[in-house]
Records
---
Amino acid sequence: MESNTVISIQNLVKRFPVGGDFFTALKNVDLKLHKGEFTGLIGPSGSGKTTLLNIIGGLDSASEGTVRVLDQSLDNTTHNERAKLRRKYMGFIFQSYNLLPVYTVFENIELPLILNKIDQANRIKRVNQAIEWVGLTNKRNSKPNMLSGGECQRTAIARALVHEPVLVMADEPTANLDAENSHNIMRILTKLNNELDTSFVFATHDEKIMGYLKRIIRLEDGNIINDKKIKKEDV
Amino acid sequence: MIQFLTKGLLRDRSRSLFPVIIITITVTIVIFAIGFMKGGMNNVFLDTAVIISGHEKVVTRAYKEESQMLPNDLALLDVDQIIVNLNKEYPDHFWSPRITFGGLLDMPDSNGETKDQGPVIAMGIDLLNKNSRMKELWELENNLVNGRIPKTSEEVLISEKLANKLNITIGDIATYIGTTMHNAFTTYNFLVVGTFDLRKGQADKQMMLVDISGARKALDMENAASEIFGFTNSLFYNDKKAIDISNDYNNSHSDTSDIFSPVMIALRNSSQQMGTMVDMVDAFLLIIGGVFLIIVTIVLWNMGLMNGLRRHGEFGLRLAMGESKGDVYRSMIVEALIVGFTGTIFGTSIGLMLTYYVQEYGIDYSEVVSTMSTSSMVMPNIFYAQITPDLYYIGFIPGVIATVLGTMLSGVAIYKREMAQLFKELEA
């Protein structure tokens, strides 16, 4: 990895065909994210947050420009190469948790390790550790339907972090939670960001999150209109 | 991953239990319906074969030409040796001699004067030989109305209809009046030991059953027989095989220039009606069986399709987490195979058990079919199912192939899935 740069984007343009024309969702975006950053992509709906998150996660490709994630260019990569990148180095947190209902908390968290072909003894150790991170030790054998919204999201966080990825992407992770649970979740994520030195990128417009972010990138109509690093004293 | 997916499969009833139940029920119905249709049709053939034609029968060329006249003067000779040869050449069949003869049956009173008299069609069948399956084929134990089965060559069974017509009671002496195979006049006394009812309409209206040794004595037909009937050991009629066997036999044993040389006739060629019937049955089975199979295949295809679509969210998550499209697709197929095989094995087992039960005990339709029997085709009154080799694998067509194809089709959506929409879809 070049120095501690996790994401390097230059002149990124993303266009979507709409009818016979094109809609430009991202316009000449330049961006660098570094290891351990706790970054929020902030902006109204349609500003390009999720599109940028998709491109960083290798779920979508750029129309123009270059995108390097973890020192690997995403230009001209195959689906399988991008899947491998996500599997090994990325974690995802979704607004609606997306836990698999038939599996227990332990098993849901175990999935990324299975996909990465980690042996069973190691899996058990790492899942237990991840369960401790998010404070769900007493819920390890519960199914998602027996959990509260906050507990579900904590499970999703453990699942996103259990394989100790370099980068975690979260799309509106607190949108379905009340204020207390939102703060709990953000406190857990901040703690893990500090302990594991994992980079986080949030796409959100939830004001409750803002106070926890170390860097806020504001998007509007596909442009970065503001990129501000928050000093500790600001937080 | 396999262990992980298996755990999910076992816990998620809508992915495992319910599809397995649907496949089991569907395959059971397919197996039983096909077994019952085949068995039912085979019963029609078998009853005709038992009374009229065998699955195959051997006669002399001359007898074949005049068979309507029951010309025993044209009967087969040296029958024992012919049967030995037939058993050797076609070991999946059993062969039994038959003398069919007509005449008058005279019932004398205590003074020896004619009390009643009427025409009779008599069948000399192999009743006394302990290895003979004729008692089984004629279902004599079930069809006996009064008395017992003959134990000697002088004893006969009279059909209940004929017995009523001629006022015959058990213990009466019945005098057969007819001609020997040498066209000499003959009278022969038989002791009536029982009456029977084949319950096949008018087929046994004038029938008398006697052991072939008695018929031979009465007609002076030592080691001779009108016909030699052949039946498959399983009693299941295979039209193609019957034709192949008869062609094979005729090519090697039948001399077209010798009217007394033996000729083998397959059931379908025993009468024009029978040939048409066999073709109709084949077409019926093909059409009904085919349509039925297509319908259940579509049902299970659709189930596989719906099952794949229902898990759209789970597959999206796995793709987002870095599982390759190929791996997700393959896991779907493996699951469909497991579910399909499990349901098909259960369905085939239950279907075969049901079919076996109806094969053994049958379903009685005597009231319905009693008026449908004709002189050249006998309708059975009890329909039996029949387990045939294809029943062991035919369930795999809807159970496994259709389920997997449906899943494969729904799985194509994985490859067509817009990865850029995953976040939006997973938030939905």
---
Amino acid sequence: MTKLEIPTMAELAAKGEAPDILFWVGCAGSFDERAQRITRDICKILQHVGLKYAILGTEENCTGDPAKRAGNEFLFQMQATMNIQILDGYEIKNIVTACPHCFNTLKNEYPDLGGHYEVIHHTQLIQQLIDEGKLKAEGGESFKGRRITYHDPCYLGRGNGVYEAPRKALESLDAQLVEMKRCRSNGLCCGAGGGQMFKEPEKGKKDVNIERIEEALETQPEVIAAACPFCMTMLRDGIKIKEKEQEVQVLDIAEITARANGLT
Amino acid sequence: MVSQVIFGILLLAAVAFASYNARKIIRNIRLGRNEQRANQPAKRWRAMLLVAFGQKKMFKRPFAALLHLFVYLGFCIINIEMLEIVIDGLFGTHRAFSGLGAFYGFLIASFEWLALSVLLGCVIFLARRNIVHIKRFFGTEMTPWPRTDANLILIAEILLMAAFLTMNAADHKLQLLGASHYTQAGAFPVSSWLLPLLPDGITPLINIERFSWWFHIIGVLVFLNYLPYSKHLHILLAFPNTYFSNLKPQGYFRNMDSVTNEVKAMLDPSYTPEAVDAPSRFGAKDIQDLTWKNLLEAYTCTECGRCTAVCPANITGKLLSPRKIMMDTRDRMVEMGENTRKNKGFQDDGKSLLDHYISREEIWACTTCNACVEACPVNINPLEIIVELRRYAVMEESQAAASLNAMFGNMENNGAPWKYAQADRANWREG
């Protein structure tokens, strides 16, 4: 694979260029070590299909999602207003996000504050690229016949009705897609949403991610597919606690796609 | 003649009392804040037709949905019969619509089959609650009263249907015996099974027929007036509640315009805020801080517990139960409504929805996953209330877990919820 070129908006603007699409990396994708690998795989996919893209780099700020869900509307709107100024400054029209929370907030909540963009999640982009024949699941690791179960992130699935795109991406690999009992609109949360990622859970019988990982393991998967960096953390923690790290991998749809296309 | 007068008085009293209570309910809902929910009527009619009329979301649990469909269809269609009963009662006629001939026979026959299906549905529902002990009908908020309420409704429906069928059976037998006043009319495919159980004398038959007739109609009028005190109000409110559904994606949380004004003013000192009716506080502490739609939803909730059954917090043993959020909201609203009426304006009673009804532990256990919203067969949104309560706790009281406050601080200072420097945000490129 050729060297990864990841331009920032500032760099493109300095050259007088504009990208086709802005890649909104998100905080997890920027700082969380595990999520950074997903971020790079998304970049590899974008570069592989020849899409002209850019990131905001140090000009990107948290969308404010965790603040809003935790009740801090002030902080959310401060973040949103700053981000909208930057996005509008670069005349951004199209955005792809790595995180369903960024996706939901940018797409649904920024318009109220004057930020209007075409926002898609990376699984939707991957599906489009497969449909257009630009991604073929060739030249890389084979997922043919492997048992994969997909965990629906709440803000992608129930929040925005995106159930098919990630599944299409998996189906294109000829993988054996096995559904959990609670899937699609009945999917069970990983336990991270609504600010839970940043606090201790209230007391109860067990943690939500354990409940979810037990259900995922019932499908006897080789791979648990995720599409959200927070779900990724929760599911991996669950796998570690269940001591299944050797048998079961937790991978993002972007990572699976990058591997299948030999981009890693 | 006497019975016609008695009937007229009963009917009038029942309707008057029901409308008195209906006005109370409307006044209570109006305790809430204003919210625009009337745009896009085409989409709203669609939501109402699919979700309330078509019961689309009920079918996530097919067996319960099927039984519910029996009871629902029976309830709606047998109400056509009510029209005839009222006419007969007021004018002393007997089966006023029997002039419809064969079609009347068809109507009565279908009412009978429906009555049987309602009866069977209710018996199975009772068994599910009291013998099978289905888990979602229990839980902390399902104290004796809500459980009794559910049983009363089912028993009332069983009694009403039994009276209806007994009335038809006695009528049918009287018709067969050629009793005067009992003209040949109707078809009785179900109630004819009861014929052997009935006496053969005309007088006892008339007594049974009249008793059943009165029992049925008085039962219906009592039931009508029971609704305002019961969770069963959903049979009426499901329709407006789905009409005024949220039409945006479930992931969208309401923007607070009052905050937008302050943020704009902070970032641009020359900004003059538009005149909005500023709320007395940010978020919700009590009923008057919620919207009328939240309150309508509280009245619409029939406590089926589908929300709680899918709530990740509840499943894993946390205190949060979305159903309890709705029941608490209703209880507090009724309490505030009474207070407001008695005192000609609300007198502080030292209580509030947050803390006296819904605890902090409950609202902070929510993952905002929308499973409860998705599960509700009548489009109730407990999540919106939870978030409003959080907004109050955070913005008015600064009462959030220390770890959440740390997250807010990080976001404010570094533009990320974790303690990383903004300047390092793109360092992953070198990885």
---
Amino acid sequence: MKSRLAIAAALLSISAALIHPASSQDGVPQEVRQDLMDEVGDATGVMGNMVRGRTDYDPGAVAAALQTISENTAVFADYFPEGSETGYETEALPAIWENKADFERLSQEMSTKAAELAAAVPADLASFQPVFQDFTRGCGACHEDYRQDN
Amino acid sequence: MLKRIAIALVILAAALGGTLWAVAAPDRLPETAFEGLGEPDLANGELIFNAGNCASCHGASETSDAADDAVVLTGGHAIESDFGTFHVPNISSGPVGIGDWSFEDFANAMLRGVAPDGSNYYPAFPYASYSMMDIADVNDLWGYLRSLPASDNEAPAHEVSFPFNVNRAIGIWKYLYMPDGAYVSIDPNDTVLRRGQYLVEAVGHCGECHTPRDILGGLETDQWLAGAPNPSGQGTIPNVTPAGSVADWTADDLAYFFESGFTPDFDSVGGSMVAVQRGLATLPASDREAIAAYLKVIPEH
């Protein structure tokens, strides 16, 4: 009996693996979304260090950074399923699940805006600075209501 | 003999009670405090308004994210605390707000925590910090507030239970906790540090969230800006002393955070600090640098 159960369980796990092929975004949702946001932070840093005058302005690198932000924020809100409210040092606030539609909308808006900007990166730093400032207000718009104070 | 002791104790208790009652009486500003004030400077009033971030508590929540919209100070935001729920009042320029007030009323509210009817405000209104403000700035802020739109929104009454609903109890709180000078000592000849101290300790009332409180809700000033539990119950308000979570930040990093909302590794500002940072972003760069300089010299915790 026990061995039958073990075989059934093994078959189930194989079929589960077939339905959901492994990808870089497989895993615990809390960890996936943290990784996605870490990449967004790194990409923002690429641009922010240019704005702060710490690195030379490079429109190609700006476009790549915006592309990463667009891709990650397009799927970011998918990693907040029911049951992932706590654990893995999550800083997600319960307000996310109370206002899921607004949360998803903000993430999508960020993605759309990043893609638009990636297609029209200014040639010089002076023109990019106000664009960066305006674009990154979107970070606070979401973090104000949906991420814990830290 | 026992009876005499009992009588003496009763007299002592009455005297003590009487003293406390007297100590707890609302304390208005003297007439002389108002001497020499001219017409309010609205530009400076706006700067003070943004540095103190009045809108983050008194503004309508839907207008608070849009810095360009006219600010309507409708009140109504609820502040949950261990003592009850406070409903932030309308302070718009209409009659429900401060439209019918005199400047003396406003100055007594800001600098003494006393309402126009002579009662004490709850210290959820952070007048302990504002009491260190310069009355000229209060005058400018007054002028600016009166230039903003009116709202007829009525905030609900505070929901506070005994004994915290006894108005004179607030007088005792004031006696215990109203600051009688700056919270930290700095070089009095350094004008940059003095400006930073003024913006942090008085106008910006940073300590109200970043400093832990004792059981009566008074600031533990020997732990100035050392961080505290978040009153909302989620997460913590960080320690911003030079040994705290900003230990590795330069003064330039701090000033950049106030300007942009980004930490040195480009994590972004979150929670209630978002609105505070938006206000700071509107200040002159010299004010952000002054705040940063002050945060670098305060005692480490």
